[in-house]
Design brief:
With 222 residues, this protein is of the alpha/beta class. It is 56% helix and 13% strand. Helix 3 links the parallel strand 3 and strand 4. GO terms for molecular function: DNA binding.
């Protein structure tokens, strides 16, 4: 069972998201919050697997709440669910360790799939958000910035062992630990250790950031 905390300052939105999540028997909403500060408090009380946060909330916005949750309750993954897809929000959320970024305008099935992926240790971006991230990575057509980022990413990847590079490539492809274990014929605990080592050696906070490095280094196709 995936235990979820849902935070949004609009009661009707919370009710709608709760109804969507309630349609899947593998997901349980264990707490709801109307602002970011309450969300942080309830995460500490209930220790959910995933915290689903709106960005614009009173007292403490979702970005700040997500950063605080990742700092003080690292066992809870953070997913941003919002109507806003501005690059600044995406960059801030992912930079603070969010594992997912979903849009309220997306398909309800995308919400369920995203939460399951994040709960399994993978990262998940709404297709529209992923498109914006890849577009940013691809540069504006001048090429110089893209080549500079690629060179930097390749230098980061060079410190990894061949097996670690394999794991990084599969993380970049969006596979969960269980899926990577099946692909590489390893036990899941070993994969988890490899992923942790890769994140540490790359100096990144989460799988999304690692996936970006994998893309820039050419380990994953665009």
């Amino acid at each position: 069972m995936i235990r979820v905390l849902l935070a949004d300052d609009e009661a009707m939105v919370r009710a709608g998201v709760r109804a969507i999540l309630g349609s899947d028997e593998a997901i349980e909403v264990v707490a709801e919050a109307a602002d970011g500060l309450e969300a942080v408090e309830l995460v500490h009380r209930h220790r959910p697997d995933v915290a689903v946060l709106d960005i614009r909330m009173p007292r403490l916005d979702g970005l700040a709440a997500g950063a605080e949750i990742r700092r003080t309750a690292p066992g809870t993954a953070v997913v941003m669910l919002t109507t806003f897809s501005e690059d600044a929000y995406i960059a801030k959320a992912l930079g603070d360790g969010a594992s997912g970024f979903l849009l309220k305008s997306g398909d309800p099935r995308e919400l369920i799939a995203g939460l399951k992926a994040v709960a399994e240790g993978a990262a998940y971006l709404s297709p529209k958000v992923a498109h914006r991230v890849i577009a940013e990575l691809s540069g504006d057509g001048a090429g110089g910035g893209r080549m500079t980022r690629a060179a930097a990413a390749k230098a980061q990847v060079d410190v990894l062992s061949p097996r670690e590079r394999e794991v990084l490539a599969l993380v970049g492809a969006g596979l969960s630990n269980a899926e990577i274990a099946g692909r590489l014929f390893l036990v899941e605990g070993t994969v988890k250790a490899y992923v942790s080592a890769v994140l540490n050696r790359l100096g990144v906070k989460n799988r999304v950031q690692a996936a970006i490095v994998a893309y820039e280094a050419g380990l994953v196709g665009s």
